User: Fold this.
Amino acid sequence: MIRMALFAVLAIVATTATSSAQTASPYAGQERRAIKALSEEEIRDLLEARGMGLAKAAELNSYPGPLHVLQLANELGLSDAQRKGTDALYANMRQRALSIGRQIIEAERTLDRAFANAAIEPAALRS
Assistant:
């Protein structure tokens, strides 16, 4: 009888520990992604130069990026020269963001493959 009770307690503890370990990860399910560190939405955003919220601190402190300035051009009362200047800034930023977005995706893909293939080297990880 004691053996049976002890077995039941151990089974409950093992089940609880296993389920707790399985749900504890904030990354649950992300291991099935094509590039584990990036969601499909993040990949699309990078490929379309939509950014990743990296200018949030600036935006929240009243320093809007060029796209937001263009979106609010009427409310801001921009002159034609200001609109043209902001358009040029946005075009330049977008072109650079497209290039950097592709670089980020490729770097994450390379890193993901290295870990998946157990071929990560300290020098490669550092770079």
